[in-house]
């Protein structure tokens, strides 16, 4: 008999979409796939060179559980120079992707039944990770008028005696919203004053289109002590398949995370870690060029969205997603269960377009599409969405 945990986990919507896309492609159909949050760039040249060199020099044996000291030193320097926060290598634990870093952190902090406040919309795996690790996700509904960012008042309303942690994803997947320093300070101080850990997932922080990005641990020494910072190289350096993420935290938490990781996986692939060194120390120009491309795509897509009828959107200040409100057609669509799932099925089956239903992120009137792919494909995707919307509104 399977564990009760398995029965409590919601299957991944994105995996379901991917399975359908593969099946349609096998039937010979050409699908415009905007569902995947994966950069359409190859990893930086120096990252590749460092990874290949690791094999040629036989860097293939066991190493330190928290990660290569060279990589952790590079992460410390990155956090100092780019984010304005000081850590030591012993505060860093390198993991097999940011997902793994989050899971390690939850295992280190949560006891059975502890509550974790999770703003909606959330990245699809967050509530399931919390449940797997014994916690209880407490969903905090946000408003589109606030760009789906939580406020201090909404945080206070969801705080109970069981609250152990607050999740913050900044910039946000799926909305691309970015918290300002002024918005973060009262939230962070409230958590400090009330003994609530902050798990700050900043995996998209390098892909930010605002004038400045505020990393939560940089706000104050107390904020740093109270926060587990999550980051990695999948998005910023297009290293999705190499699986390098990391945590930066207090020495006590870092030691706990390393202890857990030591029993579960030891450490990530050494070749991937050496590629990470190359990405962090020798690839700034290439990463800047990637971000510039994402920004130019965003500008072109916003212009197109502004000409479309029957649709509202959140202007993304970071990441590479568009979160589109398609609630205008809700009364014109026959559906059972999730409205956004029906819309996505229609788009895939009738328009050969793959996007992600908003129900996967906790908001059923929305769909998410990624512009981490060729601009012309995203523009074509928006045209197909507009055609679909108009067919419903004019029916």
Automatic annotation (TrEMBL):
Record key words, sorted: Aminotransferase, Pyridoxal phosphate, Transferase
Residue ranges of every copy of the Aminotransferase class I/classII large domain listed in the record: 30-385
CDD domains reported for this sequence: AAT_like
Enzyme Commission number(s): 2.6.1.-
InterPro entries referenced in this protein's UniProt entry, alphabetically: Aminotransferase_I/II_large, AspAT/PAT-like, NHTrfase_class1_PyrdxlP-BS, PyrdxlP-dep_Trfase, PyrdxlP-dep_Trfase_major, PyrdxlP-dep_Trfase_small
PROSITE patterns noted in UniProt: AA_TRANSFER_CLASS_1
The keyword Transferase is assigned to this record: yes
GO MF annotation list: transaminase activity
Pfam families: Aminotran_1_2
Cofactor(s), by name: pyridoxal 5'-phosphate
Classification via SUPFAM superfamilies: PLP-dependent transferases (SSF53383)
Family designation: Belongs to the class-I pyridoxal-phosphate-dependent aminotransferase family.
Protein name: Aminotransferase
């Amino acid at each position: 008999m399977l564990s009760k945990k398995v029965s409590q986990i919601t299957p991944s919507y994105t995996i379901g979409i991917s399975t359908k896309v593969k099946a349609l492609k096998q039937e010979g159909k050409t699908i415009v796939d905007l569902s995947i949050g994966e950069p359409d760039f190859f990893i930086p040249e120096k990252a590749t060179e460092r990874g290949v060199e690791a094999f040629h020099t036989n860097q293939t044996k066991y190493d330190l559980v928290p990660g290569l000291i060279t990589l952790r030193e590079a992460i410390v320097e990155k956090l100092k120079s780019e984010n304005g926060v000081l850590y030591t290598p012993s505060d860093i634990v390198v993991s097999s992707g940011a997902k793994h870093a989050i899971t390690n952190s939850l295992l280190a902090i949560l006891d059975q039944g502890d509550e974790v406040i999770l703003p909606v919309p959330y990245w699809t795996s967050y509530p399931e990770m919390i449940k797997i690790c014994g916690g209880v996700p407490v969903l905090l509904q946000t408003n589109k008028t606030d760009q789906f960012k939580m406020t201090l008042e909404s945080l206070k309303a969801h705080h109970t005696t069981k609250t152990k942690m607050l999740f913050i994803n900044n910039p946000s997947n799926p909305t691309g919203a970015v918290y300002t320093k002024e918005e973060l300070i009262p939230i962070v101080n409230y958590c400090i004053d009330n003994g609530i850990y902050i798990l700050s997932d900043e995996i998209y922080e390098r892909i930010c289109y605002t004038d400045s990005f505020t990393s939560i641990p940089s706000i104050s020494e107390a904020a740093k002590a109270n926060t587990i910072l999550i980051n990695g190289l999948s998005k910023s350096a297009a290293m999705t398949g190499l699986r390098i993420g990391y945590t930066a935290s207090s020495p006590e938490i870092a030691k706990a995370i390393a202890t857990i990781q030591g029993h579960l996986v030891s450490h990530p692939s050494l070749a991937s870690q050496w590629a990470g060194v190359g990405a962090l120390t020798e690839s700034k120009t290439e990463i800047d060029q990637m971000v510039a491309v994402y920004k130019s795509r965003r500008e072109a897509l916003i212009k197109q969205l502004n000409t479309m009828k029957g649709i509202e959107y959140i202007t993304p200040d970071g990441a590479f997603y568009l979160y589109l409100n398609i609630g205008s057609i809700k009364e014109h669509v026959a559906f059972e269960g999730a409205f956004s799932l029906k819309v996505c099925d229609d788009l895939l089956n009738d328009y050969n377009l793959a996007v992600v239903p908003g129900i996967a992120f906790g908001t059923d009137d929305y769909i998410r599409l990624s512009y981490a792919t060729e601009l012309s494909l995203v523009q074509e995707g928006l045209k197909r969405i507009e055609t679909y919307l108009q067919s419903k509104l004019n029916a």
